Amino acid sequence: xxxxxxxxxxxxxxxxxxxxxxxxxxxxxxxxxxxxxxxxxxxxxxxxxxxxxxxxxxxxxxxxxxxxxxxxxxxxxxxxxxxxxxxxxxxxxxxxxxxxxxxxxxxxxxxxxxxxxxxxxxxxxxxxxxxxxxxxxxxxxxxxxxxxxxxxxxxxxxxxxxxxxxxxxxxxxxxxxxxxxxxxxxxxxxxxxxxxxxxxxxxxxxxxxxxxxxxxxxxxxxxxxxxxxxxxxxxxxxxxxxxxxxxxxxxxxxxxxxxxxxxxxxxxxxxxxxxxxxxxxxxxxxxxxxxxxxxxxxxxxxxxxxxxxxxxxxxxxxxxxxxxxxxxxxxxxxxxxxxxxxxxxxxxxxxxxxxxxxxxxxxxxxxxxxxxxxxxxxxxxxxxxxxxxxxxxxxxxxxxxxxxxxxxxxxxxxxxxxxxxxxxxxxxxxxxxxxxxxxxxxxxxxxxxxxxxxxxxxxxxxxxxxxxxxxxxxxxxxxxxxxxxxxxxxxxxxxxxxxxxxxxxxxxxxxxxxxxxxxxxxxxxxxxxxxxxxxxxxxxxxxxxxxxxxxxxxxxxxxxxxxxxxxxxxxxxxxxxxxxxxxxxxxxxxxxxxxxxxxxxxxxxxxxxxxxxxxxxxxxxxxxxxxxxxxxxxxxxxxxxxxxxxxxxxxxxxxxxxxxxx
Length: 662
Hints:
662 residues; eight-stranded antiparallel beta sheet; mainly beta; 20-stranded antiparallel beta barrel; 2 helices
């Protein structure tokens, strides 16, 4: 009987051991079998995705399968080193608790990391251990002179206090808020004491105080580490012990000689946003992203620059727009916005993106190219449309009616339409065609490289001084002979002559001389342009044969713009500005030596506009009213015009017109 009991006990222990062993093997984070890397993860979730360096950190590209309660994904990978994370229900990023090793993810957490060897083994990267990689290889120095100003309150919030009786409004910035200098303010307590209230998960975090423009490490931090700029970051570890959160120095922190005093440093450059510009812009050398989403509780920016991490870049709500800034290197960048609506992550493309490309999931990513020109960064579109063809364009239409006493509304003729197509395969080639019905109304072809610019224009003026007075068909060549000097030569089209133009472009000044290019005989023309600190353009034309002339000027700032031109007989002016969210626009035309003039004014708010105009000539007095709606895709307006207020039905026309961009 004893032998039987002992035998059964050995069998039971064997079974238990086998179960434990199989369980360990089943839940190992990364294994290799039959030419595939197998990822496993145990979690309560509706769906789990695998994201990592092998799929550009896409949070929705690789959906894992639930097999016997374990989420599994098999991937064919080449030998090499990879980082990864799991994305739970499309919104919660979680490191693999069974990863071979870890590295700092740059956002206060960690990524799993492994190396796949040529012989099919999964190992930690050479020269590292799990303990080292968990801390990203950083060296933490204990602060032995600290006072106890950091603790966890009764509600589980981490409290970090700071004393400065002269501070106006200090902030705290760190790996927990992507080092946003003005995202997390400190709250004033009393007698010069301030405190930060942070909701932090277990992990190691680095931080600094931002005090009136200065970045200062916490003098009472648990530890310090090199910030990469010759100074120090304060360091804190949040851990869970006995079911409660605690704060302490990182476990790997060490004493090291004489403790360096925390240095006060110059503020790192942070782009400031004054008046919000929707879409993309460059401010103080950083790219500013701004988008409107009224029903979003939070918003984030995800893209190729941050591994498509939906929580890497939090946006701030400023003047009704979600705004954030990034310091990016020149190159092509792709992005999307992640809006938190009703607790769910909603990925959407930027409606004002310079260009788009398919995202591989039935939608599209915004795309832009960041370039450096004359030492400054600028944004260019990368013409990559959903169908893969780099084409953009617009469709314009006009329908005209007149009121009739018996038929009420009558067409005054066939509708007019215009289709513009622009093909830009790269930044060096531009082809534009404008169709009016089945015929080509105008065309443009532009080919350029670093020095040479060649253009063919058909029934559309080239960008020369007084271009509206120049030949609308011809060839133009521009060649850069020095850094800021280009030579210009052009040929126009006339049936019985060969119009010519030639000149120089130096920095902001363009000067040309022409024969039969602007008007019969010889002419000279010039233009001067500047962009900073305000926009200014002045151009003029003088014809030596008949002493005719033309002058034009434009002036613009961020608040308003004004333009005017005069050709010796007719004066035209226009102005526009924006005040308290209202867009104001006005223009006027006056012919010297006559009673002919026209004025028009318009106000726009949000996506709507209202305008009114008056025209007077020797034969007609006309009043017009304009009602319209617009956005970045379309602009539609209804114009009601009356030439005799005493005859409404017989002297009123209605014109419906618009532009649709694509």
